[in-house]
Amino acid sequence: MAGNYSNESMLDLYIFETSNLLEQLEHSILASEKSNHISKDDVNEIFRIMHTIKGSSAMMLFDNIASLAHSIEDLFYFIRENAPREVDCSALSDIVLEGVDFLKVELEKVKAKDPVDGDAQRLKETIADFLNQLKSQNPLAEKVPASRKETKAKSAEKPKDIPEKIEEIIEKIPEEKSKYYIAPNITKTPAEKSWYKAVIFYQDGCEMENIRAYTVIHNLKEIADKYIFTPEDIIENDLSAQVIKEQGFTVVLRTDKSYEEMHAFFMQTIFIRELKLEQIEDQEDEPVMNQHENNLTPQIPVLQTAEREEKAEKEGQLSSSSSAQQSIISVNVVKLDRLMDLVGEMVIAEAMVTQNPDLKGLQLDNFYKAARQLGKITGELQDMVMAIRMVPLSTTFHKMHRIVRDMSKKLNKEVRLEIIGEETEVDKNIIEHISDPLMHLIRNAIDHGIEAAAERVAAEKPKAGTITLEAKNAGSDVLIIVRDDGKGLNKEKILSKARQNGLLTKSEQEMSDREIFNLTFLPGFSTKENITEFSGRGVGMDVVSKNIQTVGGSVSVDSTEGAGTIITIKIPLTLAIIGGMNIKVGNSRYTIPTISIRESFRPKESDIIRDPDGNEMIMVRGECYPVIRLHTLYKVNTEVTEFSQGIFIMVEDEEKSCCLFADELLGEQQVVVKALPYYIQNFKKDNELGGCTLLGDGNISLILDIQSITRLVKK
Amino acid sequence: MIRALIVDDAAFMRLAIKNMLQNNGFEVIGEAANGLEGLEKYKQLQPDIVTMDITMPEMTGLEALPEIMKFDPKAKVVMVSAMGQESMVRQAVALGAKSFIIKPFKEDVVVRTLNQVNALK
Question: Is the ipTM of this complex over 0.90?
């Protein structure tokens, strides 16, 4: 089994890494757009990201992705090398973001295993135009060693165009030596030196032949005291690779090594296909190709100075950026899911051992001591697995910057996004389910909530609207709050719309504000007459609500007309394992999440009150709580029907409380939440059950959904 | 077995090279995500051969290469570059890189290059 997992697919990693990089890229470009200045670090980062995406995509043979990444890389290469003074940040962001969008779409195709066929030609042209414009606006830049394409183009025209510096250095070299390069570390004029001529042919497709040839020359310095080679422009002209491909690379050299030694030397050349090596008769002063004088030495110091500059530049950055290494590994979610399941099984297995019916009545001190230790470790293991699955909301939250930017640009509204509590963590599975709903809520807020600037000024509000995205922990739940300071919801409009669509289930006077606002979550509801491109056709809010419900969460709306709307999403921290109190009613077992229990007690008959409708209530410390008999609620036969025989469990949810009446408490335990089978879910949709679980003694227990139970009371 | 160290900031590239090497009798003894880490891993692991990406954060391949050569003048470093980075590859060769691989690369090219570089004296 381990073997299956270690061989993660390249494709998975490609998708994972590329989408991470794209997010990072989006983040940097949005940040620089906001400050209207693109910093050197950002340019470097974007360049690097595009370079990486280009490389990976080319490896995966996604040529369209690679070529678009290449054009953006070129653009940022220019900006990095020339630091043009005036860059239109807004236009640059538009281009890059458009590129990011294209790449994202293509990546989705990769994920769906669809053909990756997007055509980025138009976008590439836009980028090329922008680059040309930049170049023309910054003519100074041409003098600096320019972008790679330019160098290539230039050297193609006049291959001997060597930078001034080098020529100066060549002139400074003493006359006598200028003919041949004389290696500094080899003493001149030993007696038995001979001339060799070598022609090297490289294997097809090995690429950059000129640099491979340069490698040969570089190594040759140590053994030859004089040498010349052709083509001679391997350093300045990358087109010389073509010449080498066709005609081979020819070196004539003088050395004290034997023919065999030289043969061995050249045969070490990587990707050599053919070597023609011959010893030339002694012609001390008249080398064969003396017209091809060339000189390598000057090139080196120039390279090194350039490098030193670059280094000095980098050093500043190095010291400022933290060198703390991240010791983080990425793990396939499938493995985590599996681990989670295993821990769940283990929790059940542990309960099955320690609560085994066979143990009843036995005096087993050592066994229970060991069992307690097992229980402790199981608990820690479980906490750890949970912790591993927790992911901060920051990535999801920061995605919203992009939405706000795009929408405010298109709708011409000024909107600020404020993020609070992005470090709040939730289960990985949950994150995936809330991204879309959040996006929808933000879109709604900008489109329907925030007013146009003029309208805001008239209402004495700041010109720019603010949307606040906040996350915080609340017990075993996480609250995500989307707040806008827009015009708020209009109750009248909502009611009349609901009336039109026949969505009202009770009389309008009886409805609380909250109930009215919650109407917006019903399928087929929309108050906005003119539908825009962004917020859909009223299918939005009910989809939001449905999405949140699939992860066991809920959505509620609150609004003050004129002041704004607050939408609160409540989602459970985690789905799989909860602390539960097992109770018994007749022959059935139920589990109540421990977090919802306030207390349990045996009531006195005198505390029971009955209201005129016959509803039972109980008085506890001067407060009245409704009583729910679980045996009547679930129609279970039990002998315990007198309050004094059974037990009361006070549960609460969102400030609403009630008392459940059960036969007896069985004990507290970690339970693994399993979804109810489909046939039960379909059979009875509103069943006040949150799922089911397996108990240590092999019984199945139903988990009560306290939220819907407390709601029962209100009805 | 030839012991290799892979230095590349892209996890994808590291995996690609690693798979190719492991299929061909190399042992990948370490991976590093930037030049600085690569340098440290080199000192610690003393691999037979290193594949070194050029464009990386923190410390580029061109910055890490001379440091490695300073530590071990016999180090066998093979640069991993893209088309268009000719001048940087040339600098790398001048600084002591033994050879280079060009992205996108094929398995046999990578394996042959590394085998031949490893055979160098």
Answer: no
